[in-house]
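Inverse folding, one chain.
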């Protein structure tokens, strides 16, 4: 069973790693990554790229992790009731209490997903390695 889950999850990690790599290389080239620059300059550019990609992915991963809890349920319930107040067609359905709404959301909620958070933290680690190389060779 664990091998089935591992086979299912590696494409998620691979996709998020490729997205992070594309983002970090785009930032690194914008910051001056080139073959003509020295190793210190390239390490600084790569450090900036990996940091931006890692920070964005880690923050998005934390949001994905929080979304699997019931933290955002109160906001979704409030928005649903706000729409019901101002939309005339929405009044025809039965008003749902918060407990019922929360239980229905809990049934649909998926499992926790760590792949974006882990990939973001890995890119932050790569940024630290590149920063170390920058200070070592500058």
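Residues assigned per position:
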């Amino acid at each position: 069973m664990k091998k089935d889950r591992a086979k299912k999850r590696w494409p998620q990690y691979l996709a998020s790693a490729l997205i992070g790599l594309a983002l970090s290389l785009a930032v690194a080239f914008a910051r001056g990554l080139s073959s003509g620059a020295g190793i210190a300059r390239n390490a600084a550019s790569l450090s900036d790229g990996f940091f931006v990609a890692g920070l964005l992915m880690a923050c998005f991963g934390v949001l994905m992790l929080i979304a699997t809890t019931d933290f955002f349920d109160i906001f979704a319930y409030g928005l649903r009731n706000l729409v019901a107040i101002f939309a005339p067609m929405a009044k025809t359905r039965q008003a749902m209490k918060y407990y019922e709404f929360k239980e229905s959301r809990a049934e649909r909620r998926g499992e926790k997903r760590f792949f974006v958070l882990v990939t973001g933290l890995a890119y932050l680690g790569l940024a630290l390695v590149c920063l170390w190389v920058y200070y070592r060779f500058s």
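Helices lie at 2-30, 39-67, 73-86, 98-108, 115-137. The mean pLDDT is 88.
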